[in-house]
Protein 1
Amino acid sequence: MKGQILVPKSLTNEAIAERLTSTALKNIKKGIIKKKPLIYLELNGCSGNIISLLNGQNPDFEYTLNSMVDLCYCNSLMAAEGDRAIEKLIKAMNEEFILAVEGAVALKNNGLYNIIGSWQGKPLTGLHAAKMLGERASHILAVGACATHGGVSAAKPNPSQSVGLQQVLPDKNMIKLPGCPVHPDWFLGTLAHLLLYGEPETDNLNRPLMFYSTIIHDRCPRRPFFDRGIFAEKLGDQTCLFKLGCRGPVTRVDCPTRQWNGHVNWPIGDNTPCIGCAQFGFPDAMAPFISYDTTRVVKNE
Amino acid sequence: MSKRIVINPLTRISGFMEIDVIIDQNKVVDVKTKGNLFRGFEQMLVGRSPFDAVYFTQRICGICSAAHSIASSRALEDALHIEPMEQGKYLRDIIHCCEFLQNHIRHFYQYTVPDYVKFEQNSLFQSDHDDFRLPKNSNDRISQHYFDSLKYSRLAHEMLAVLGGKAPHNHGVFIGGITTQATAEKVVHIDSILGEITRFIDEKMIPDVYEISHFYADYFRIGRGYGNLLTYGAFNHYKELGTLYVDPLVSTMESVEAFDESKIQEKIDYSYFKSVTDSNKPNEEVTEPDMDKEKAYSWVKAPRYNSRPFEVGPLARLILSGAYNNGISAMDRTIARALEAKKITRIIKILLQQIIPGVDVQKKYELPELTTGRGLVDTTRGALGHWLKIRDNKISSYQIITPSTWDFSTRDDNGFRGTAEEALVGTPIQNPDKPAEIGRILRSFDPCMSCATHVYRPGKQVKTIKVF
C-alpha cells in the first residue's frame, strides 16, 4: 500500500465504504492486488442476498466481477449447469479462494433437505459443501441472517433443522454480516477491506465494526419523539415506533444513516418498526414484529 | 436407445432444482422436475401473530418477496373484513409493479440471455453447450446489455423502496395497502426512474428478445405444454379505473371462462400425503405424510383447476388479456415477459396519475378470535394464493400455492403431468451430451424453486416435496 494515503475526507460509514472499494479497484487495475477467486455458495434460504448484491451501486456487480474478484461459482448467475457447474466448484477449491455463503445449513437427514447439486452421481448437500469449502477457504463471509445464525430458515419449529454456518465450522474464523437481506454495501465494503487490508476489525460476534458498531436507536432520526414520549399508535404514524414493537433499540447496524436501495429509504422511514433483521436471533427473538399495544396491562401471565 | 439426463443444479433460477429426463431416439419421453430445498414455511407460520405473516412470508423468496407480502395482506384483509382505500391499493400496486420490472429485467438478462448469447469476458459465463447462433455484432450488443440491465433492475428496486422502505423484503406493503403516505417528491422520484426504465425496455430489452427469437425460431415450436392458461387477475377491479391489465380468467382449448376459485383443488394421488380424500380445497391442511402410499412418487401436491393442470405467468396473462396471440411455446413465454414489462410501465404511469399526496390509509387493526381469509393475486410468475386461519389471535393454519407449484406440479389421477413436465415431453434434443433445450424450456417458465422442496430417505428413491 506504499504511496496510498487515504485523505480523511469524511468519516461517515458510507464514505469509508466507498473509499475502500474505489481504492481496491484502483489497486487491482494497477496490478498491485491480484483478483482473488470468490465462491458464492447459496444454501438453505431464499437467495435474496444475491439479489440484494445485484443492487450494489458503488461498486456495481459489473465492477465487482471485472475488477475485484473472479467469481467462480454462483448458482443464481453462472452459465454452466448440472455436472459442469459442480466441476467448476470443485476445481475452484484447489486454489486459494474467498468463500461467501448465504442461506442456512440444513442438518436434517444428514443435510439432504438442501441439495445444491450432484457430484460423482451423488447428491451434494449444502452441509457437505459448507464443510468442505469452509475448511479450505482463506476467508469466509457469512452473508445474511440465515448464514450468520440460521435466520428465517431456522424459525420455529425449524423443520429442516437449519443452523448458521459457524455451527458446522466451529473452529473457523468467519466474518458475519447479518441482515435479511444483507445490504450490498455491507458485503461489498467488507470484501474491499479484505482485498486491500485483510479482514476488517470486528466486534466479539465477528461483525465488521465499520457497519455494525452502533445501535439503530442511537442514531434514529425519530429519537427525539422517543425522548419526549411521543409514540406511534399505528403503522403510518410519523413518530417513534417503539410501542409498535420497533427493534431499533436492540439492533446494531447503520440503517439510519446508510439507508437502502440507492440510500433512498429504510423501514422506519417507511413508518414501520424495525424488525431487527440485522440482529442475531431474527426472526424468533424479534417476534412479534408488529404489536398494536406493547405497553398494555398483561393479566394472568 | 433411451438415455437418462440429470441436470442438478439447474442454475440461473431462484432456488435449487433438479431435472431428470429420459430421452429415446433423441426425443424427450419422460420428465421429472424436483425442487431441492425444504424449509417448511407453512409449519413455521402456525402460532405466529397474524400481522407478522406479511413480513415473514416474504422470506419465502428473495426475488419475488413483495408478491408474498401482497397475497398475505390481502388474505388478512379478507379475514379482518377490511376494504382498503383506493389510494392504498394504488400505492401497493405500484410497489408490486416495481417488483415485476425488477424481476422481468433480471430474469431476461441474468437468467435467460446466457442461454442464447455467448459471453467471452468471464469464466462465470462459460457455457456447457455450443448452440450459439447470433451474429457477432448482436451477440456482443446483447452481452453488453446484460451488464447495462443491472442499473435498471437496481433502479426498479429503488422505486420500490421509495414506497416500500427497502427491497428485497419490503416493509411498506401491509393491510390497508401501504404504510407510507405519498408526497410530490416520492411521485416525481418514481416517475423520473420510470422514464429511464421505460426507455431501456423499449430500446434494448424488447429489441433484444426479438433478435434472439429470430435466430432461435425453432423455440416457437417447442415447450408448449397443455396450453391451459389461468390468471387470478392482475391490476384489476379498481373502482374508478376498472381493469388495467387482466381479469381473473381461465382458458383451455375448448373455452375461455371467468375464473372460479371453488374449482381449485390440490391433488395428492401421487404425493406422499395422507388425507380422507385425494382432492382437497386449498385451505384444507394436508400435511400428514404417508410414504407407503400406493402409487405415490413425490411430495409435490398437484394444484388443478377443474381437474386440469394450468400454465400461469406472463404469457398466460398476455393471452388472456387479449394482448398476445402468437402462440404458446418456450420463445413466446420469453417474449411475453419482455412485453409485459412494457405493459407494467404503462400501468405504473396510470396509477401514479391517481395518487393524492398525504393520504394516510393505516388504522389500528383488531383481530377477531376466529376467522379465515384468502388472498389470490397474480404476481410476476403467475397465480399466487395464501389461505389462512386465525384462532385466539394466532395463525392456526397457513397454506400457500405459489405460481411455480402450478407450473412445476406433479401428475395426477387423471394421468395429467405437471405443466412444465408436459412442455418438455416430445422435445427433440439435438445433442444429448450437451442438451441446451431442457434448460431453455424450463427457464422460459421462470421457475422459483425457493418455493419447492426435496426429501431424501437413506436407501430410498429421491422424493420431491411441496416446499416453502
Note: Chain A has a mean pLDDT of 91.
Protein 2
Amino acid sequence: MEEIKSPAAQKSEYLLEVENLVKWFPIKSSFFKRTVGNVKAVDGVSFKIRRGETMGLVGESGCGKSTCGRTILRLMEKTSGEVRLDGQDIFALTREQLRRIRPKMQIVFQDPYSSLSPRLPIGEIIGEAVREHEIVPPEEFDDYITRVMEVCGLPEYYKDRYPHEFSGGQRQRICIARALALSPDFIVCDEPVSALDVSIQAQIINLLRQLQKEFGLTYLFISHDLSVVEHISDTVGVMYLGSMMEYSTTEKIFANPLNPYTKALFSAIPIPDPDAQIHRIILKGSIPSPANPPRGCKFHTRCDHCMEICKYAPPEWNEVEEEHFCACHLYNDAEANERAEKLMAEIKAGEDAPAEEQEVL
Amino acid sequence: MAEKEKKRSSYISGKESRRITRFNRRVTKKLEKDRADAGKDPALYTTRMKDPNNVVEFDNVCTYFFTDVGVVKAVDGVNFDIPRCSTVGVVGESGCGKSVTSLSLMQLLQRPQGQTVGGEIRFNMGDGTAYNIVNTPNAVMETLRGNKISMIFQEPMTSLNPVFRIGQQVDEVTKLHNPEMSDEDIKARTLEMLELVGIANKEGVYSMYPHELSGGMRQRICIAIALACSPTLIIADEPTTALDVTIQAQILDLLQNLKDKLNSSIMLITHDLGVVAGMADYVVVMYAGRIVEKGTADDIFHHPSHPYTIGLMRSKPVVGRKVEELYNIPGSVPNPVEMPNYCYFRDRCEMRCAECDGRYPPEIRISDTHVVSCYRFLGQGEELGYPKSVNAEEL
C-alpha cells in the first residue's frame, strides 16, 4: 500500500476538493478528424465538500452537472484542473493505484432501468465488486452481502432474482446497495430520484439520509429538482453552461440568492399551494450552445440586470459574504470592477483593430 | 415458504394462458363488433350533456386492457366533469390510469387489447348536442381530434416528425380541418400561431426541422399544433415533465395565457403537485385506476382528505418547509391484474378503520365541491354511490 502516497495523513476538513476543473469535448471535423471546436461542458469549476456533508449541484439540463460528477470520479479524463479526494490527486494516480482507490468513491446513476445488468442476479450485482476488491474474506462474503441488502431495505431472498423482476424504486435500492457494499467515503448521486414516482422518491431520499448518518458518507447530489436538493443538501452549487454561478450553504442560498440566474431558477420552482403568491422571473429564450458560449458572463444573454461590462468581461468568483460565493459583476468590489473594466477595454480595442488581425487569431 | 408462495402467485400454467387468450379474443371481437354497430347510427352516439356548461363529462368510464396475464382494469369507474374555460388537473403516480383516461377521451387506445367497456364520455359539441365518445365511429372522431379536442404530449422530442419542416407540420392540422382555406391563408394562420406561442423568429422557424430547435421551443411548436384550430379542450399530458424548471415556468405561463385567449378548457395530467397548484381550478386525484378524491384546488391543497392525497403531499419536499424526514407511503400499488375487493389503498393506509375491510368505499360528498372515497368520512356527507365496475367475465 505504500505506493499510494497520502500527504494528508493529517485529515483535512474537506473530503473532496475540486479546483478549476475543466472538461472539454472536442468537436471533430468529418474527414481529417481535426478538432474544429470544443464543447465546454465543464469550464472551470471549484468547490469543496466537508466530510459527512452533502453538496447539491443544480442547474438546467446541459449545464454540465453530470459531466462534472463523472469527471470527479475519473470516469472521464479531465482537460485541466485538479480533483483531490482525501488529499489524493485523483488524476495523478496510475491505473493500479486508481483501481485500489475506486472503492472509496462510488456513483449511483439516474436510470435504474439501464444501470443494472439484466443477466446477473441481484446478489452478484451487489457482490461483484466486493469480490474484486476483496473487501471481506471469501467465507464472510455471503453474510456481508445479506447485511448490505438489509441496510438498503432489500430482503435476503431477492439475492437470486434478476433486475427485471423489480420496480423502479427497488432497482434504485439495488444501485445504492451496490455502491454501499464497497464501504465508500464518497458517493456521487447523479439524479438518483428523477426517474421515480413521488412516493418512491421519498423512500429513496430517506434511505440516502439514513445511510449518511449511519456510515458518515459524503454525497455529491446532482439534481434538477430544487426542492429535493434543498431537503437533502448542506451546501448547494448552481451551475450554468459549465460554470459555477453561485455556491453557498443551503440556508443562505435559498434565503438570499444573489446571482440573477439563481434568483430566476429558484423563482420557477412550482409550489404546491394554490394561494402562494410568487413573483416569477420568467427567463427569456433558452440556454445557449456550450460549443459556442457567449463571451463575458455566460448568462448575459438572458439576464435582466445585464450591464455593458457583462458582455465583455467574465465575472470573477468572489466571496460576497461568509461562505457565499457568487460569480456576477453586480457584486464586484472596487478592485474587481477595475480589473473587469480594463479587460473590457482591451477586448473592445481588439475588436476595433483591423480585420486581418482577427483572421490571424 | 413465503418466497415459494410469492413465486406461485405470478405463475400462469399453459392451460390457463390458453384460456386467457381465448377469452380475450372472444371478448375483444365482440366489443369491436358492438362498437362498429353503434357507430352506424348517429342516434346511438349522440346524447345530451347533463350540464351544458361542461365541455366533457366522464360518467363511470371503465377502460380495460385484455392482456396475456389477465384483464387489467386501468380505469375503473371514473366520474368527473371538465367545466368550460377551466383547468382540471389530474394527479397520480405512474400506472394510476391518468393517461389512459385521456387516451379514452381521444379514442387513441391501443385496440383491440384496450377497450372502453363501460360508461359514457360525453363531449359537448357546443350546439346543444353531445357525442358519446365511447361509441363514436372513427370517421367522426377524425373531425374532432385536433379540431375540437387536441393533445400535447410529454416528449416534445418524439412527438414531432423529424423529416418534415415545422411549417408543414403546423399547416397540416389547419389544412385537414379547413379544406376550403387557400395555401396562403393557411401559412398566414401558421405564422400567427407561431407568434402566439412566443416564437420570435417565426419566418425562420417555419422552414426549420425539429432537430434545429431546443426542447422548450419544440414544446411550443407542439402547443402551436394543438391550438391551430382553437379547440374547446386541450389535453396536456405531462407537458413539462421533460423540460427544465425555467422552461417549465415559461410553458405553463404560456398555456395559461392561451387558455384565456381562446376560451378553451385544459385537462392537465401530471404527477407534480406544484404544477397543478399553480394552474388548476379543479383537481382530480387518481390511485390504481380510480378517483380517490376530487375538488377545487383549494379543497385539495388546503383540506386534503383521502389518506393517499395526504401522503402524497407529505412525501414531496417543499422549498422553505424544512422537515427532518420525508413521509413515505409504505408498500406499493396492488397488482393491476388482481385488484383486491376492499379499498385499494387499505394495505398502505395508516388511518384505516374497521369498515375498510368491507367493499370499496363509496364516493362521499363532504362539501359542495369536494368528493372523497374514504370510509373515514362515512356519515359526514351525502353518499354518491359506489364506483361502477364491469365484471370482465360477463362480457
Note: The mean pLDDT of chain B is 87.
